[in-house]
Amino acid sequence: MQDATQLIPGESPLPLYVQIRDNLRRQILDGSYQVHERLPSENEMMNAFGVSRITIRQALRDLHNEGLVFSAQGKGTFVSKPKAVQNVQRLEGFGEAMAAQGYEASARVLSIQQLKPPKAVAAALDLAAGDQAVEVKRVRYLNRSPVCVENSYFPVDIGGQMFGLDLSNDIFPMLENRFGIPLGGADISLDAILADDETRQYLNLKTGEAILRVERLTHDRNGRPIDFEYLCYRGDSFKYQFRIDRK
Hints:
- Helices cover about 25% and strands about 35% of the residues.
- By secondary structure, the protein is α+β, with helices and mostly antiparallel strands.
- The radius of gyration is 22 Å and the shape is elongated.
- It starts with 15 loop residues before the first helix and ends in a 6-residue tail after the last strand.
- The model is unreliable at about 1-10 (pLDDT under 50).
- One of its GO terms (molecular function) is DNA binding.
């Protein structure tokens, strides 16, 4: 554990448990504590930080609620494998959603090409017979661990503008801010499928492991379909969160 005397400034106006929580969160997110690594015991943290047990437990409770740590009875508190939680009440990109939760999100572009799209893609984008589309294939990372293989398809008048651009961040802000396309809503469907060889390779999966596949069709504010995606997530790294009301 790092030197606690350097972690909690004496002049900080924040409560001690918040300072401890924020310090532990920072060390978890920057990799100082690895996935499934045991955190120091409550007694060790009490001594290191010079605080009471209730203060340590308040800090750990917040980290539990954020999904950053988990406890095993009689064994201690351990770092959780990062799990992306995306709320579908608001249309937002992976990076936007993860940044709001304090995670580091990034992307690696595998390919970008203009091609004849699969029939399901052409139908979703309302393309005429013979029309081509632009496919962008990327791997998405959460805290530098691969969690998603993303195949995105765009009409050529939109996707054609993406060649040569930096696609390592969310594309939604690019559509809005660079291309001037106001986004409207999206249709989303979910299913579980077995990962193919390519997806297994990029997501470090074993043969026979299932993935969560999300199909998302995004429209502009005028209702035109502009982005159709297959988002293939590790089953242990992603959760969609819904809220529905009975009226």
